[in-house]
Amino acid sequence: MTSRSTLSHFLAAALLAGTTLLGSAAQAADLAAPKELPPEAKAPVLIDFAFGARIATDYNFRGISQSNHDPSPQAYGELQLFDNLLYFGVNYYRTDLPTKPQAEIDLTGGVRPKFGPLTFDLGYTYYYYPDERRLVNYFTTVPYALPDGTVFLAPPFFTPRNTDFLELAAKVSWAINDAWTVGSGVFYAWDWLGTGAPGTYVNGTAKWTIPENTFAGLPSGFAISGELGHYSLGRVNPWLGGADLKDYLYWNAGISYTYKNVTLDLRYHDTDLNKTECFLNTTDPRGLFTGSGQSNWCGTRFIATLSADFTASALGVFAPAR
Fold first, then answer.
1. How far is 128 from 151, CA to CA, in rounded Å?
2. Which helix (H) or strand (E) holds 179?
3. CA distance 14 to 9
């Protein structure tokens, strides 16, 4: 089994939303969301296109590394219609996963209705992993034991042939004032990473855009933000061993600085999974080949991300609606 790329309805509780594990997501999906536009670009536009690129020292999705702790170049593009009410996007991430896909490509779409300070986002993400190769058990039939005493035999296949999957999402953000924004979301997949296990991620987020001169000599552009989420995962298909994946908590906190269209983000990520539970959720090949049955993909990580974000309207390609 991946983790959101490991071995690894709609809105079961229209607010069970949002881990991997967690993205888009982030992720993969949350990280892919375009940055807040500058005031001069906020005039209503019937059609717009947001795009950007970033380089991260590690691609972490809901607490789990998707790039084996190596750097990950990323890019996105998003078509926005009717003043960003309707959107369709594509996101690219460099990955290093058990099934060895060339990359992760996320196809997104949905609606973003706004009611005063509240912005809703009801949509989907299709996680596509091109050129995958199933990880087959040639190595051992020795049973694995979890800390709670659960024992399971190594299955004939460690991963599905295809880990692509569809996830539905419901999110809301509340701009309390110019400085504070809080949000919550629910993300649901009925066939997480092609394993047959359902996956539900619920999160809460907060961001403080530090006003200029709040601290002596501190220029505008700094922000502090964080996320707390819970991933609930079910049981995988019998031909993958029928194991119950481990639910877990994920959190991150960091500080960012934005100058014009460029943002530098420094962030701490962690989960409450131990190394054995992490291996169960991710099928980290290193845990297989060494026989340790452990993975460090879910532990503490400090990640730096440098990104550049643009919109066609801000560049003068599309004119605001009159």
1. 32
2. none
3. 10
Q: For residues 103 and 94, what is the distance between their CA atoms, to the nearest angstrom?
A: 5
Rounded to an integer, what distance in angstroms lies between the CA atom of residue 112 and that of residue 90? 17
pLDDT band at 6 (very low <50, low <70, confident <90, very high): very low
144-145 vs 180-189, strand pairing mode: unpaired
> For the segment 95-120, what is each residue's pLDDT rounded down to a tens digit?
999 999 999 999 999 999 999 999 99
Inside any domain, residue 200:
yes
Q: Which two tokens stand for residue 116?
A: 């005063």
What is the CB-side half-sphere exposure of residue 31 using CA atoms within 13 A? 37
Residue 202's domain comprises: 29-311
CATH number at residue 215: 2.40.160.40
* CB burial readout 172-187, b (16+ within 10 A) else e: bbebeeeeebebbbbb
Rounded CA separation 74/265 (Å): 14
Q: What is the largest CA-CA distance in the chain?
A: 69
Query: What is residue 10's predicted lDDT score, i.e. its pLDDT?
Result: 35
Residue 218 has what pLDDT? 82
d(CA 75, CA 308): 9
CB of 119 closer than 8 Å to CB of 173? yes
Number of domains in the chain: 1
Helices (H) and strands (E) in the chain, counts: 3, 17
d(CA 124, CA 28) in angstroms, rounded, equals 12
Does residue 12 lie in a domain region? no
CA distance 171 to 18: 6
Going by C-alpha positions, the residue among 52, 38, 42 that lies closest to residue 221 is 38
Domain contains 320: no
The single-letter DSSP state of residue 198 is: -
Which of 60, 71, 72, 111 minimizes the C-alpha distance to 89? 111
